């Protein structure tokens, strides 16, 4: 479970890099203010990958330390609570 979340987080980091470049390129215009806005938007999205990659590293490390079983146990408890709340 943790490894799947880590791979998703890594994918989101890579996607964020592409989205940052795409946003900057798509919002560019002839006006100086449009270009400034495009740069700010690109930089804002460009701040996301570091967070996703750091999260992926933590999740991989937790998996390596054997905490995957703890997550499965917590998910089972959560599922049980949800079913009780629905009943």
Please name the defining characteristics of this protein:
87 residues, mainly alpha
Describe it:
With 87 residues, the protein is mainly alpha-helical. The protein has one domain. It has helices at residues 2-27, 32-46, 48-64, 68-86. The model has no long low-confidence stretch (mean pLDDT 88).
Question: Outline of this structure?
Answer:
This protein has 87 residues and is mainly alpha-helical. 89% of the residues lie in helices and 0% in strands.
Helix content: over 70%
What is the quaternary state of this protein?
A: single chain
SS strand fraction: under 5%
Outline the biggest β-sheet: none
Query: Pairing-aware structural class of the strands and helices?
Result: mainly alpha
Query: What sort of overall outline do the alpha carbons produce when their principal axes are compared?
Result: elongated
End-to-end C-alpha gap: 27 Å
Counting DSSP H or I runs of 4 or more residues, the number of helices is 4
Task: Enumerate the spans where pLDDT stays under 50 for 5 or more consecutive residues.
Answer: none
Helix and strand run: HHHH
Mean pLDDT: 88
What is the count of structural domains? 1
Radius of gyration: 19 Å
Total beta strands: 0
